[in-house]
Description:
The structure is a homodimer. Chain A is of the alpha/beta class. Chain A contains twelve helices and 14 strands. In chain A, helix 1 packs across helix 2 and helix 7 runs parallel beside helix 8 (212-228). The termini of chain A are far apart. The model of chain A is unreliable at 1-13 (pLDDT under 50). The structure holds a DNA duplex.
Amino acid sequence: MPDWWWSVNMSTPRRLTQRKIAELANVSQSTVSLVVNNKEGSSARIPPETRERVLKVLQEHGYVADPAARSLAGVANKLIGVFTYEAAFPAETRDFYSELLTGVEAQAEILGYDLLMFTSAPVQDGRRELFHPTNRLRLADGCLLLGLEIESADLERLVSGDYPFVAVGRRDTQNVPYVGANYVDGVVQLVEKAWKLGHRKFLLLHRDTEAESVADRIRGFVRGMSEMDPSILRQTPISVAARTSQDLWSQVVSSGASVVFAEDPAHASLIYREAIKNSVDVPRELSIVTLADPSTLFENDPDFTRLSPPRQKLGAESLTLLAKILISGIPKNTADYQLLLPCELVSGKTLVAARV
Amino acid sequence: MPDWWWSVNMSTPRRLTQRKIAELANVSQSTVSLVVNNKEGSSARIPPETRERVLKVLQEHGYVADPAARSLAGVANKLIGVFTYEAAFPAETRDFYSELLTGVEAQAEILGYDLLMFTSAPVQDGRRELFHPTNRLRLADGCLLLGLEIESADLERLVSGDYPFVAVGRRDTQNVPYVGANYVDGVVQLVEKAWKLGHRKFLLLHRDTEAESVADRIRGFVRGMSEMDPSILRQTPISVAARTSQDLWSQVVSSGASVVFAEDPAHASLIYREAIKNSVDVPRELSIVTLADPSTLFENDPDFTRLSPPRQKLGAESLTLLAKILISGIPKNTADYQLLLPCELVSGKTLVAARV
DNA sequence: CCGTTCTGATAATACGTATGATCAGTGGTT
DNA sequence: AACCACTGATCATACGTATTATCAGAACGG
């Protein structure tokens, strides 16, 4: 950060304030406030004439209340914070966040919320830090948390701090409101489907992470396999995907699998390319299934048979849930505030009957 | 103002305030503030012991200043508003905004700004309205304006209202600070290049819009052509692109052009497909040049020879410029605050020598 | 005519932070 | 002793809005 930075001085051009409106309309500041907020009833009696007069002045001068002052006075600001553990827009992370944000944005538009992106959070080890000395969480009415992995410590601190928030994606941490994708059931279905197509030799490759969304998919795989045949499950390799393309391929070959479940589409893509290189026909000799939508970065990918988490809907529903929480207060029993949305199953072209 | 406004009540869980810290550290609130803001000098004398003691309490309780209160007290909030005339994240507009926002976000991270996306602005005729009764422009220190077209009225109002802002993209309106792409010179170069390759029959198709960025490209085309040969320019059609694929194609055919300058990559894409359909070889029989980067939505596009506006850089530089304005105050002479960045010229594969 | 209720509007205050003005004390100088 | 310079810290106030309590006057009922 450049060092002239902190010298920022808001040479505030004097704001248009309620007091000035009051002077112009020949009333008191209180009256203006009451008119602005459309109050009426026993405690705020304003006859139509006066109201009109004030409204006219307000209109003419394009008055807008200072949100900071409102906030300080205890009024919600219709401001939702959005925290992403990684930069949200760059190409690498775009596929993941962009869809979610599309949903969030659309819903924000509908519900009348503005979005506060916490981009100033200092980056530590490639990840943004939620709780830093100058975090601005409180500026927002509540906050959405996005990220493959979310620090459990952060979640606990938010919960114990009574801060209204919603995590996007299922979370293991206690009392965390979230909206996630139902990966378990989705993967179970995919396993069933492959099984019915005659596959018996499976391989599951997944990313090396503790993320709940990945764990859920593994869980779904295990459940699906054990529903089909527990003894086969026992011989089925479930491994972290290798780093290099070649190693990945040898994982596939040495497993002897007829169908690979690649949790990460990027891995599916690499495997597919290696298959071509090694003259292995996909899907006739090897079926590939992936458990998320592929990145747009990988062109020339086949139309993978896959699980498609409803990312836009996840974003939209998260915001809706947060709005609910904001209105009805922090929930005691968060179980009511934990939502799982079904994944779509995309047929694609990379899963066909196993060869006999 | 909508009437749900007041119904949302922040059941504020009592904040951790400077006063409480003060009690715990046995000092006054003022002292805490001074420590928090790291003040020193003649007007704020705090001996190391006291400072340490206060810092320790601050640390232990994880105190964070209320941004609303700070803002009210006149401190800049390091908050930059981002206004897009269309939704920023959806696929249709993603190509345009996403690159810009990537740059903005990266720079915001560097300069320590948070971003406020004005998503609550009501949509009128498919476009968001900047000045609406509940606009929250003032919540931000300043604002970035994104959009192919920007209402001149909005710009004037911002200027006359002394509101710090920067438009992304060159603007005709007086006294508007902006960071834009130098389309004129870029297109001139492209014209020269085509000319040197022997092309004499040109066609320029552009979108039907008053947007400055489009006008600049047309201007560049005209300048380039007239530098080559004014008499040929006079015979060169410069038209609004037709709506349908077929009409577009007949525009191309009837012009007899050996090279088409398609301002909008989407048009280039359609023309390319029609060419294939009509067994016209691109680029050997028809060269195609486009004046922006193609959308990722159109797959199977060739590698168009094109002008590539530095969108990420545009975003980053806009934020930098706005930051400068915030520090040094609203400029009187905005000429110093109008920046044009050079476009990159991508060679691509769709412009080759004209047939003799 | 007096107490009561109702009406229209305002005064006063709270929200949490930043900062210029101020104050009490201390040590030094003439 | 009177004056000054300096230190450590606090007081008081401003920022703009929301809201409660209050007030002056009118209308009303007995």
